Amino acid sequence: MMIYWIALAALAATWLFSWKLGQGQARAIIAGGQRMHSLPGHYGSYSALWAVVPALMVLLVWSIFQPLVIDGMIVANLPQEKQGLEDLFLNALVNDIRNMSIGNAVRDVDDPVVIAAAAQVGDWQSTSNILLTVLIAALVVLGLVISRRQIAPELRARNRVERFVMVLLVMSSTIAVITTIGIVMSLLYESIEFFRRVPFYEFLFGLHWSPQTALRADQVGGSGSFGAIPIFMGTLLISTIALAIAAPIGLFSAIYMAEFSSPRARSVIKPLLEILAGVPTVVYGFFAALLVAPLLRDSGATLGIGIDSESALAAGLVMGVMIIPFVSSLSDDVITAVPRSLREGSYGLGATRAETIRQVIVPAALPGIVGALLLAASRAIGETMIVVMAAGLTANLTANPFEAVTTVTVQIVTLLTGDQEFDSAKTLSAFALGLLLFVVTLALNVLALRIVRKYREKYD
Q1: Shortest CA distance to 57 belongs to which of 23, 131, 7, 13?
Q2: Which of 234, 317, 372, 432 could disulfide-pair with 405, CB 3.0 to 4.6 Å?
Q3: Burial classification of residue 115, based on how many CB atoms lie within 10 Å of its CB (0-12 exposed, 13-18 middle, 19 or more buried)
């Protein structure tokens, strides 16, 4: 793995060197009295592309296929009785050989077959690294030679560089689209497998969630109940509490920063608020579990109210603090974008600042504010760590914020971390939950987009 990082660093240095070389050659031609089609920087970029891109593509292909080739060579050189092992044991043996070749501890440290194969793997790795180095160096030199010969006054370097950038952007967009399609298709495939075992209506409208399924025919207490209503009720309850905290605080702070604060105060307050978005969620989880939840429990006991140690209220309060920046920052940008002429027209008609904000600015910025709230809601629905640490894992069908509940994302994590078989209904239910969560968040995003498009104001 180290050889790849070294190669990437060398290619980065090569990019800079070849860019300087191509730029210098173009400037030398200009100094000689000839007129170039493009700027010297374009010729530098053209030279750098020729020197680095082919080598980078070879490095990418090599990093993908080299481990597969070496694994195939390991298996081919094993004794006949080792080659006949089941796939699971054969893969474990290959992993042991690979680990021993890089000095990591393995199980069969005294096995002569593993020792001999590990030595061979080390030799193959060394040979592979040498071949990769030579090939990359040859491609870099060849690219520099080709680009140096092509740099001339008639070369349309800018057009070629821009065409390459366009192809790169299209490829990036295509990869993003294909990745999204792959995620959706994988969720659909596994969800269909789940719904073949559990009826769709039972999953969507069931009131009891207990996904423990029996591993044996004589096992007790493992029948499995897959009613998702309690999970989505918990998700809705915690998200509602979080939005009840984040929406007013975030909106009022945005109005203050945009309309009342001085530029100096705004330059301090806005970054401080946005720091909240950069705090890891596990830190919020610790804060909720160690401070907020015990404080709520003790306060409830003092007032005679029973509040569980893990409650939806604790998770919702902390989650609300976490998503405040989503509301405040986006709302602030939207409010700031409202044209100055609307404010001055309102003041000219005799309206006060408060009336202007309430009757002119907020209505004009309403689509963006609603979009910010829906984005914050999507973020709250997808949160996991805070719920695990502050609200628990119990799937309760309740609207009481003082009780422990769970959410969809927490259950997905729980279902995929266990000793259950992958093709069991318990494991497959995680994909059904993921698909349903995907549909819900997609619907929220589409709703936000429709609201913004419908009520967007266009100003001159």
Answers
A1: 7
A2: 234
A3: middle
